[in-house]
Structures are given as structure tokens and as C-alpha cells.
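In this section we walk through a basic example: taking a raw amino acid sequence and producing a predicted 3D structure, encoded as C-alpha cells. The instruction is simple. Fold the sequence below.
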Amino acid sequence: MATKRALAQQLGVVAGFSDPQAPLEQYRTPPDIAAQLVHTADLQGDIDGRTVVDLGCGTGMLALSAALRGPRRVVGLDVDPGPLGIARENERRVGSRTDVAWLRADATRAPLSLTDATVVMNPPFGAQDGNEHADRAFWRRSPTSPPSPTPSTTLAVARSSSPSPRTTAAK
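The resulting C-alpha cell sequence is shown next.
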């Protein structure tokens, strides 16, 4: 397993949003934060050999971080086609051996089963007018949700598998 630092360095080539949409609260997840999140999840057995789903993947930072850690498969899901195109380019830049399926869909109504999957996400904070509590719909979609989602929770990994699903959060 590569170190957290090596993972962050590999992610340094991931391009951010070319035209971020404020209503969707699009912003780039820094490589070191993505590496910390995925490294921690991997140490807990939540990445290697598993299906990983990135809800609201944007340009793919978390999905690609997971793809570099040996999952069975990775799915990146986002409602905006622009960032998905950038995510595809980023996949080529990163050079992961795990293919990523990039799907255009609403992450809060994902057209796939999240049973026995690790979910990574950096949901919108709900900071834009008319978008208050936007993160709650993401948390409800996750197989497990934190005891009380708060605006300070910026990243999360939720693993759904019996007997004890868990959620890991990084700020």
C-alpha cells in the first residue's frame, strides 16, 4: 500500500472545475484531504477489493483516490456533465489500473444499489440561498449516516455491510 503522502502526490495532477456552478456548490477537494480520507478508509478495510461509489464526484478527486488503492470497481456519480468530462480526463492523467464508471445522475437519487459498497463523498454544505441543508440528502442516500450530520463535516466514507456499518468523517 502506498503511503498517504504518495497518494496525495499522485492526485496532484487532478484538474479542478473549469466553470464551477455556485448553486451546485462545486469546489475542488484538495489532494491531501482526499488522500487522508481514502488512506484512512483503506486502513479500515473499506477500499481494497470493494466497490466504491463517489456521490457528487465532480472532477473525480475522491473516486480517483480510491481507484489508486485497489478496489474491485469505482463509480463516480454527478448531475453536471461538465465536471464528469474533466473526471474522465483526470482518470487518464492519474493512470489508475482500476477503471472508473462515470455516471450522470442525481447523487441523492442514485440509480444503483449501495448495498455492500463504500461510499465516499464531499457533499454540498447547503451554504447557497435556496440550497440550505443540501448535505442532508447526500447523507440520507449513504448506507449509514453520521449520528448528527453537521455543516463542519466536509468529507465522509460510509461502508455498508453486515453486521456493523460505520461512517468515518474527515474535516
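Looking at the output, two observations stand out. The radius of gyration is 14 Å. The beta strands are 51-55, 73-78, 100-104, 117-121, 155-159, 166-170. In the next section we compare this with other chains.
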